[in-house]
């Protein structure tokens, strides 16, 4: 999360505002002091245009998956 934030020239305050939370709460997510809720992971993945698996460290592939087709 930190690398993505820094690569996009954003501050912790910028991202905390995007997530509608205090900077100190976001800082704890970014540092690993607190578990990041699923809704935050999804919102950040959309914001940075990466996959949730990338944010969760499950893959090195940043590219998000294509949207699922509805039947």
- Protein structure class: mainly alpha
Q: What is the assembly state of the chains in this entry?
A: single chain
Topology order in helix (H) and strand (E) letters:
HHHHH
C-alpha termini separation: 34 Å
Q: Using the CA coordinates, give the radius of gyration.
A: 13 Å
Report the mean per-residue pLDDT as an integer: 92
Taken from the alpha-carbon principal axes, the silhouette is globular
| Biggest sheet layout | none
Question: What are the defining features of this structure?
Answer:
0% strand, 71 residues, mainly alpha, globular, 52% helix
How would you describe the overall organization of this protein?
The chain is mainly α. 52% of the residues lie in helices and 0% in strands. The protein is built from five helices and no strands. Helix 2 (12-18) crosses helix 3. The N and C termini lie far apart (34 Å). The model has no long low-confidence stretch (mean pLDDT 92).
Secondary structure blueprint with pairings:
Blueprint (H helix, E strand, L loop, with lengths): L1 H6 L4 H7 L4 H9 L6 H11 L3 H4 L16
């Amino acid at each position: 999360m930190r690398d993505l934030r820094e690569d996009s020239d954003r501050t912790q305050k910028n991202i905390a505002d995007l997530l509608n939370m205090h900077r100190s709460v976001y800082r704890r997510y970014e540092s690993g002091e607190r578990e990041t809720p699923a809704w935050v992971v999804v919102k950040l993945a959309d914001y940075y245009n990466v996959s949730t698996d990338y944010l969760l460290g499950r893959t090195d592939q940043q590219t998000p998956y294509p949207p699922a087709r509805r039947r």
